[in-house]
Design brief:
Blueprint (H helix, E strand, L loop, with lengths): L18 H18 L25 H12 L7 H10 L4 H10 L15 H10 L7 H10 L12 H18 L15 H22 L4 E3 L6 H9 L4 H16 L15 H9 L13 H11 L3 H12 L6 H9 L3 H12 L12 H25 L8 H8 L3 E3 L1 H15 L3 H5 L3 H13 L2 H33 L10 E5 L3 H12 L4 E5 L7 E4 L7 E3 L9 E6 L4 H24 L3 H10 L4 H9 L1 H11 L9 E4 L18 H15 L8 E8 L8 H4 L10 H12 L1 H8 L10 E8 L5 E3 L10 H23 L11 H13 L15 E4 L8 E2 L4 E4 L11 H26 L12 E4 L3 E4 L5 E2 L4 H4 L8 E5 L2 H10 L1 H8 L4 E5 L6 E5 L2 E4 L9 E2 L2 H5 L9 E3 L12
Parallel strand pairs: 3-4, 3-9, 5-7, 9-10, 12-14, 12-18, 18-19, 22-23
Antiparallel strand pairs: 1-2, 5-6, 7-8, 10-11, 13-23, 15-16, 16-17, 19-20, 20-21
Helix pairs in contact: 1-14, 4-5, 4-21, 7-8, 8-18, 9-16, 9-17, 10-16, 11-16, 13-16, 22-31, 25-26, 26-32, 27-30, 31-32, 35-36
Family: Belongs to the inorganic carbon transporter (TC 9.A.2) DabA family.
Keywords: Cell membrane, Membrane, Metal-binding, Transport, Zinc
Subcellular location: Cell membrane
């Protein structure tokens, strides 16, 4: 056994303070900043905001971007081919869709690669319809030797193809008989099985000789970038298992926001300095692979070297050439992308956390990583390769010791063997091919590889849903065009967030009361504010993440209850301090002993929260009355000083600003006349226990927080007579008998909370009670539809049982699926509700209200709406897409082993990378497809908006989202494909219909097709389209 030599080396001189040194340092910083763009962009889990996981490649078209993601991250670009074939067998993808998707592929260029054989289209279609198995070489040898692969034809061959193969084989056999010795004794007695075996053996031999003629023998392996990869390939030893453990501990302590019992020493000096200070002691760097680390760190400290100096030194010692530095640094940072990404995000946005990081923390992280990588590589090379030379020569040494190429001859033969059966190519045809023709055929096979095939499957997958959706809308639009234009005054109007989870809630309101009107708008309702609730310690932004709010709003307790509020606040403070002290002391010797002795008592409340979650929740809520703020509160909403700020006189909005907000939202929704007596503005959010990702379930338009305060604030503004007067001067007259009311919908337990009921005029009491009754019934039915997705709920349960079930889920400590959030989202409709009202959309559609007839000539309202809707809804959809296609790389894996770390994120177990993306239970029912936007506008208007808004143009033209436009005059639909809008023709003339939503979904757990629900249309004699 070889002992790892010391890796310490005396620095010849202190780092020179020369112009060339500064230039190299600037170049390194530039490389690091560029590499940081490839890191995950997820911030702290408390403000989880859905976004495009591949934001770094958003400038590329979607298909090129996902391939880039596969090359850089090793992540899958699409669902597996096996999964797509399951969907094909289920009818979720049809053969017609597959053929159309293949024909529309821009690179098809249909031709006949080899005369006498099939066209490129036929070859690729055969590869799509018939599985092309790719198996490891050793397994493939076993398949050929031990299975019936060379004795029985594929089971998916059409009878005509099988007959063609056998006939050609017999004809070729007869022709060659007596000429080249191919005749086999007793062949006249062969049965059907004998001919099958002979034909397949001959076909295999022909394919094998074709692969030889085409030069399909070996393929060079790509040179690995990191030393870790070289050593792993050469020895099977992974140096990251040495490095990651101490590095993760350092990162967790460095990023900690108050969760750890001990603070990292020297944290304020930066990660690199803290690492040097801690590990320069021999007793800390005592592991065998760290031998010599303490001495090197002592020398670094003595020389005054910075983190960038250390990086330069490490790169030189490893022998990284100037041209290879960017790739090497990028791959090094991506070795722990979660931690590196969080450090990068917090360095760029220090306001996200209470304990910010120095701006150059990612440089420190890289410096520490490279030092540890060097020592681990040196140790493994010495132990496994008996290599004690310099690290700069290690890569070449290890590369020569390992296999530098792989045999592709057998795999190429197997691929052609499968294709030849599918297309009916005889062995005699293949034997007659020249070397060039063989090369062309194998080139076709290689060009249409696994990723290309999956891309066509993805297009067909999306095409099926797109055609179904547009057909449903096209058929419904005929009803809208033919309907009377005279509008009755609604019984009430309710504005919800555009969130797809509110689609079913709105649908049930309309089915229960067909005379009500529902609208949708981004859930911050144009009120971008920093908000501090009565129990909040600090202000938090309630607006889209891309917006930086400048206004502040505070919730105050009514003066009558001020004394009670102070007592309850003191109770909260004492309980918090006691809990914190107990948590800290339990990690010590005596506290740990006490916790161990009495810890079994804690099992009782834990068990009760699992077995009796609803009862336990009621007890907990009752006890919390001692700490909650008093029931009567008010928003400090009006500002008198000119400048907004967090101080008392600067909190709130001026009347002029309120007028702008109210006008903007009403115009955006098209609600400029025909106001109901009661207009409800409903924010939303979600609450559940034991759910670190709870923020991801909240309102995306409120930066991952609950939107109730925004709804409350808007209602208060719209009820102010001064605001109404200002809005009226701009052409929107709100009737005197119209009252706005704020509300909050919890999408997890389907509860609804109403705000400021004490401000409602007595004239509206009866109307409110009627509206509340409708809302309560909608809650029941909404829970009923949601519960069908949960396997633990009886598929035939009643609405009352369903509501109790979802209430239990929100309080169940063991529940990993409190709700399915945005899973299955696939559609966003931007237009008047009439175009989609009455349709069963299966909770898969975002619904944004917009009336193109009220827009300006330059489409300013639509531009404003789409500026938020396309990036936000597209970001949600893309995060679900990527977490679904590769939950290990793009998602965070299963939720079960997740532990909160540093109050910033989750990791698996006690030591892993920081897991980003969505956990598996959140996406398990999701169908990964790009969202389809159906927008009430014209092609010219949308093309103009694409030109004016770079983000919208990038997502639409890059095919990150699908787009179709609906003309409000003709009701015609056009789809954006390959840079232009093309007319859409519906696939059907009539939709399936049902009495109501319950009649359509009852007894089903799977995704359901579009259907017409008669109860949802205002007309009493509604007829399905």
């Amino acid at each position: 056994m070889h002992t790892a030599p010391s890796n310490a080396a005396v620095l010849a001189d202190p780092i020179a303070d020369s112009p060339s040194h500064h230039d190299r340092a600037d170049e390194l910083l530039h490389i690091i900043q560029h590499a940081a763009h490839l890191l995950p962009a997820q911030g702290p889990i408390e403000v989880f905001v859905h976004h495009n996981t591949l934001h770094a490649f958003e400038s590329l078209p979607f298909d090129k971007a996902v391939r880039a993601g596969w090359e850089v991250y090793g992540a899958e670009p699409y669902l597996s081919e096996a999964r797509f074939r399951e969907l094909l067998a289920m009818g979720r993808i049809t053969e017609a869709d597959l053929r159309s998707a293949l024909q529309e592929a821009p690179e098809l260029n249909d031709c006949v690669p080899v005369k006498g054989l099939d066209s490129r289209y036929a070859i690729r279609l055969a590869m799509l319809l018939h599985p092309m198995r790719t198996v490891p070489e050793n397994e493939l040898r076993w398949v050929i030797a031990e299975t019936d692969a060379l004795r029985k034809f594929r089971t998916d061959l059409a009878p005509s193809v099988l007959s063609k193969l056998l006939s050609a084989s017999k004809a070729a056999f007869a022709k060659n008989d007596g000429h080249d010795g191919q005749a086999t004794a007793g062949s006249e007695k062969w049965n059907e099985s004998d001919w099958d075996a002979f034909t397949l053996r001959s076909l295999w031999d022909a394919c094998e000789r074709g692969a030889t003629r085409a030069g399909r023998t070996t393929k060079s392996l790509n040179q690995h970038v990191r030393l870790r990869d070289v050593l792993l390939h050469a020895t099977g030893e992974d140096t990251d298992r040495f490095v990651n453990e101490p590095l993760i501990r350092m990162c967790g302590s460095f990023l900690d926001q108050g969760f750890a019992g001990w603070e990292l020493p020297h944290r304020d000096d930066g990660l690199f300095s803290a690492f040097v200070q801690i590990y320069l002691r021999e007793m800390v760097a005592g592991e065998v692979w760290m031998r010599g680390l303490a001495q090197e760190l002592q020398q670094l400290k003595a020389s005054g070297a910075t983190a960038i100096d250390s990086i330069e030194q490490s790169l030189e010692r490893i022998g990284i050439a100037e041209n290879d530095r960017e790739a090497f640094i990028t791959h090094t940072l991506l070795a722990l992308p979660g931690w590196a990404g969080m450090i990068s995000q917090l360095s760029a946005a220090p306001n996200w956390v209470d304990r910010p990081l120095p701006h150059d923390s990612l440089v420190d992280f890289l410096a520490v990583r490279l030092i540890l990588d060097r020592f681990a590589a040196k140790y493994v090379a010495s132990e496994t390769l008996t290599y004690d030379g310099s690290l700069s020569g290690l890569a070449d040494f290890a590369w020569k010791r390992s296999n530098q190429s792989k045999d592709i001859h057998l795999q190429s033969t197997f691929h052609l063997f499968q294709l030849a059966q599918s297309l009916g190519w005889s062995w005699s045809q293949l034997e007659s091919l020249s070397k060039k023709e063989c090369s062309l055929i194998f080139g076709e096979l290689e060009a249409f590889d696994d990723i290309h095939r999956r891309r066509i499957f993805q297009e067909a997958y999306e095409r099926k849903y797109r055609n179904d959706a547009l057909t449903a809308i096209a058929l419904t639009s005929k009803k809208v065009v033919n309907a009377s234009t005279k509008k009755q005054r609604p019984t009430f109007q309710i504005c919800c967030c555009i969130d797809d989870r509110e689609e079913s809630f709105r649908r049930y309101l309309e089915e229960i009361d067909p005379r009500c009107e529902t609208l949708g708008a981004a859930g911050f309702f144009a009120v971008a504010m920093n908000y501090q609730g009565a129990t909040d310690a600090t202000y938090k932004p309630l607006c889209p993440a891309i917006v930086t709010p400048v206004h502040f709003v505070r919730e105050n307790v009514g003066y009558t209850f001020a004394g009670e509020d102070r007592r309850r606040a003191e109770n909260r403070r004492r309980i918090g301090m006691a809990t914190h002290r107990w948590h800290s002391s339990s990690r010590g010797f005596f506290g740990g002993a006490v916790t161990s002795a009495f810890g079994s008592l804690a099992a009782f409340p834990l068990v009760s929260r699992v077995l009796f979650p609803r009862i336990t929740a009621k007890i907990r809520r009752k006890a919390s009355e001692l700490f909650k703020p008093p029931p009567v509160t008010q928003l400090q909403l009006e500002r008198y000083k000119p400048e907004p700020g967090a101080n008392d006189g600067n909190v709130g909005y001026t009347i002029a600003e309120m007028i702008d907000i109210v006008e903007r939202l009403l115009r955006d929704m098209g609600l400029t006349d025909n106001f109901a007596q009661l207009v409800v503005i409903t924010g939303h959010g979600s609450s559940s226990v034991n759910n670190p990702h709870e923020s991801a379930y909240n309102c995306g338009a409120c930066a991952g927080k609950r939107g109730g305060p925004n709804a409350r604030a808007f209602a208060q503004m719209a009820n102010d007579w001064r605001v109404r007067s200002g809005v009226a001067s701009r052409g929107i007259t709100i009737p005197d008998d119209t009252t706005f009311l704020g509300a909050y919908h919890n999408t997890c337990d389907d509860s609804v909370v109403w705000f400021d009921l004490d401000r409602m005029p007595p004239s509206h009491f009866d109307l409110f009670e009627s509206t509340k009754k409708t809302v309560d019934e909608a809650r029941l039915r909404n829970a009923h539809e949601r519960a069908r997705r949960f396997e633990s709920c009886d598929i035939n349960c009643t609405p009352e049982e369903a509501l109790r079930h979802v209430e239990r889920r929100s309080e169940d400590l063991s529940q990993v699926r409190p709700e399915y959030n945005h899973a299955t989202d696939a559609l966003c409709f931007v237009g008047r509700r009439e175009w989609s009202r009455g349709l069963f959309l299966d909770r898969r559609s975002f619904l944004t209200s917009y009336d193109s007839r009220q827009d300006t000539s330059d489409h300013a309202i639509l531009l404003r709406i789409l500026s938020a809707a396309i990036p936000v809804c597209g970001g949600i959809n893309l995060e679900y897409y990527f977490s679904a296609v590769d939950n290990k790389k793009y998602g965070s894996g299963t939720k079960l082993p997740h532990n909160i770390v540093s109050l910033l994120g989750v990791m698996e177990g006690a030591n892993s990378d920081l897991r980003t993306g969505l956990y598996r239970q959140m996406i398990e029912i999701h169908e990964p497809m790009r969202i389809l936007f159906v927008i009430e506008t014209t092609p010219a208007a949308l093309l103009s908006i694409m030109d004016r808004h770079e983000g919208i143009g990038r997502l639409c033209r890059g095919n990150w989202v699908q787009v179709a436009v609906l003309d409000h005059e003709s009701s015609s639909i056009q789809v954006y494909r390959n840079g232009e809008f093309v007319p859409f023709t519906p696939d059907a003339t009539k939709l399936p219909s049902a009495k109501d939503s319950v009649a359509w979904f009852r007894g089903h757990r799977e995704n359901l097709p579009f259907a017409w629900c008669d109860a949802g249309w205002p007309s009493a004699n509604s007829v399905s389209p």
